[in-house]
């Protein structure tokens, strides 16, 4: 054994060469962060900046045994994690400066650096949000059986988040290869840990039935030694584990933080356990070969360590120069990466097969995609053993073992699993039992699924489908009847699909699963028993394309989902009165087909929009505004919206009938428009 291969200190598996490399990586993080602080003060870095100075050993030690199979999720204080996993300093400085050569093409910034090609599934500006995403990435690793492991970094403050509970619990239930790695720096923003929690992490881990490990987070060798066994255990099916590394952040919560919540003496005392000093002392004690012999011909350890420092200084200086010289994103690229380009899908021929139901269409579409694409999996509450609350997925779990999965009642973890597994290359289809529950998991849609493609400059793939259902008219009450598509329509990056027929349900769901963008697929439960002709197996319906389901010349009626049936019935009743209504099924609410609607308006000169979502600020308002702005000269009458009043859905049948529009309401509105 050579001196370089010998352990750096007794009782460790880390050689002198390894410790030298660990020091180099920690020094890279330290100097990156210190220079970032200086650049921020010079206003060369815009926005917010959260630095990890003092926490270098946790990042390097936790990532030391990871390879190309493995992934990490990070936090708003994530520069060190990304560097430790292999990102280069030049693209990271460029990202912090908002340059086109940045890791995320200047779209993410300090809190949102990601590179899925390196298994870096994103730093995150939402506290705790990376934990459900890590569960998704670990699910992908488990399904692919590669031995991959995911390390989910989080701070002690994130333990108070519901996302922490949901993610750890789901990982435990599924025995996922994920390490929940807490960098306990003893402060959640400005609050000490003692003011935030009453139970230690060791007790929490026991409550979830998973392993717990504690380590000195300022000693990179100790962290790496611990993680050697932890990572090896996850590779062989050991299930999740929670690691707590105690460390300290030297700077405030953010650059500019006045730090009135702690004393200067406390910070000075913490610096006595500087992770770099701990490693440097160990290297010097080990007699690391230097850059040249001293007067006695013995190795000069300090010179060798200084040589590493000098190497890093050159690297950082070159990286900053490169970033400064890079161009900012061009204004004409403003809308790039909001959505991924989707393949052109031609409008299919009308279905003409045997009669089947909408509920059959859902199951058949899922079955087809599971059978033809091994990257597809289905997850949700009771979707496997029970087949879902409406039995739509019954039998699929037996047909596709491990790929149709029951989850706990944890909507945030469910959607976060979809986000993380999609970033890792899967095509998840997850179910939200009721549309009304969208608020429970909105962050994972609003700030993760919808934005990560854009914020990573297109690097993050997001081919996921969130299936859900709604349906007023059966006294389901205010919390189980809501049509909330307008809420999602205001979130750039999401596609929202609401089919009305069995054939379209089949073709649109298959198209959604194959699409590179996050799709919310909303079914109306009152249509599950609706019958129609079965389309051929290869039937696909283009997303974002409306369909004229009844040509007409006097007025255009636009609708979608179950309300379309009411509009068609109204159109037939109006025909008896000599009013020829053209009925358009949007099918996709976002992006909606402006061209088809405006072209119809140009022919009929009148427009009525009907939907089950409440009227105020709804989809009809957007269509009406577009008609008034882009189709004004075609209008012979005001645009009329038919929708429920802006109030919760009533429970009593008499009130619900008054609240919910029907074919008579639509027909009455059309008569008013045509009489004007």
TrEMBL record:
This protein's record includes keyword Oxidoreductase: yes
Catalyses which reaction(s): N(6)-[(R)-lipoyl]-L-lysyl-[protein] + 2-oxoglutarate + H(+) = N(6)-[(R)-S(8)-succinyldihydrolipoyl]-L-lysyl-[protein] + CO2
UniProt xrefs under SMART domains: Transket_pyr
Annotated keywords: Oxidoreductase, Thiamine pyrophosphate, Tricarboxylic acid cycle
Gene Ontology MF, one: branched-chain 2-oxo acid dehydrogenase activity
UniProt EC number: 2.3.1.61
Keyword Oxidoreductase: yes
Cofactor: thiamine diphosphate
Entry-linked PANTHER family: PYRUVATE DEHYDROGENASE E1 COMPONENT BETA SUBUNIT (PTHR43257), PYRUVATE DEHYDROGENASE E1 COMPONENT SUBUNIT BETA (PTHR43257:SF2)
Name this polypeptide is given: dihydrolipoyllysine-residue succinyltransferase
Organism: Pseudonocardia parietis
């Amino acid at each position: 054994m050579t001196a370089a291969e010998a352990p750096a200190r007794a009782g460790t598996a880390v050689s002198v060469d390894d410790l030298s490399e660990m020091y180099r990586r920690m020094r890279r993080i330290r100097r990156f962060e210190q220079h970032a602080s200086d650049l921020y003060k010079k206003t060369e870095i815009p926005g917010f900046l959260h630095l990890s100075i003092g926490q270098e050993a946790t990042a390097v030690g936790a990532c030391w045994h990871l390879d190309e199979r493995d992934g990490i999720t990070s936090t708003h204080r994530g520069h060190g994690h990304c560097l430790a996993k292999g990102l280069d300093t030049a693209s990271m400085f460029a990202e912090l400066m908002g340059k086109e050569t940045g890791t995320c093409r200047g779209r993410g910034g300090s809190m949102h650096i990601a590179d899925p090609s390196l298994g870096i599934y994103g730093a995150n500006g939402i506290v705790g949000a990376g934990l459900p995403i890590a569960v998704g990435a670990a699910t992908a690793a488990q399904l692919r059986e590669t031995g991959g492991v995911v390390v989910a970094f989080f701070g002690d403050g994130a333990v108070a988040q519901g996302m922490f509970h949901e993610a750890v619990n789901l990982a435990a239930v599924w025995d996922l290869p994920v390490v929940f790695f807490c960098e306990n720096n003893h402060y959640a923003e400005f609050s000490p840990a003692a003011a935030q929690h009453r139970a230690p992490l060791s007790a929490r881990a026991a409550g979830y039935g998973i392993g717990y490990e504690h380590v000195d987070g300022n000693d990179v060798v100790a962290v790496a030694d611990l993680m050697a066994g932890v990572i090896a255990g996850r590779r062989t099916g050991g299930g999740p584990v929670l690691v707590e590394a105690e460390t300290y952040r030297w700077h405030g919560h953010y650059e500019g933080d006045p730090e009135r919540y702690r004393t200067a003496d406390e910070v000075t005392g913490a610096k006595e356990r500087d992770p770099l000093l701990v490693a440097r002392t160990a290297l010097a004690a080990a007699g690391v070969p230097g850059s040249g012999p001293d007067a006695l011909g013995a190795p000069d350890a300090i010179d060798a360590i200084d040589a590493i420092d000098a190497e890093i200084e050159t690297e950082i200086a070159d990286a900053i120069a490169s970033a400064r010289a890079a161009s900012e994103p061009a204004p004409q690229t403003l809308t790039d990466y909001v959505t991924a380009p989707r393949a052109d899908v031609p409008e299919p021929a009308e279905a003409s097969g045997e009669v089947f139901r909408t509920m059959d269409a859902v199951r058949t579409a899922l079955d087809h995609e599971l059978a033809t694409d091994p990257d597809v999996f289905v997850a949700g509450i009771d979707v496997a053993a029970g087949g879902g609350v409406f039995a739509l997925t019954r039998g699929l779990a037996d047909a596709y073992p491990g790929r149709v999965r029951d989850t706990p009642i944890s909507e945030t973890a469910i959607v976060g699993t979809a986000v993380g597994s999609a970033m890792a290359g899967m095509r998840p289809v997850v179910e939200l039992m009721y549309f009304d529950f969208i608020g429970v998991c909105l962050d994972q849609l609003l700030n993760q699924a919808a934005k990560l493609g854009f914020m990573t400059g297109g690097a993050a793939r997001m081919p996921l489908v969130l299936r859900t259902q709604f349906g007023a008219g059966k006294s389901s009450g205010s919390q189980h009847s809501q049509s909330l598509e307008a809420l999602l329509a205001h979130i750039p990056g999401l596609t929202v699909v609401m089919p009305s027929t069995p054939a379209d349900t089949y073709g649109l769901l298959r198209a959604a699963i194959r699409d590179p963008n996050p799709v919310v697929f909303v079914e109306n439960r009152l249509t599950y028993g609706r019958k129609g002709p079965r389309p051929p197996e290869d039937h696909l319906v283009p997303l974002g394309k409306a369909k004229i389901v009844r040509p007409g010349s006097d007025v255009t009626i636009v609708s979608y989902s179950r309300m379309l049936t009411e509009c068609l019935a109204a159109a037939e009743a109006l025909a008896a009165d000599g009013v020829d209504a053209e009925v358009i099924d949007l099918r996709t609410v976002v992006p909606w087909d402006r061209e088809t609607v405006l072209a119809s308006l140009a022919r009929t000169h009148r427009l009525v929009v009907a939907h089950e979502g409440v009227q105020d600020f709804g989809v009809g308002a957007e269509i009406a505004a577009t008609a008034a702005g882009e189709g004004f000269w075609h209008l012979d009458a005001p645009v009329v919206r038919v929708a429920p009043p802006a109030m919760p859905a009533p429970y009593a049948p008499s009130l619900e009938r008054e609240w919910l529009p029907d074919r008579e309401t639509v027909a009455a509105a059309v008569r008013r428009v045509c009489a004007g």
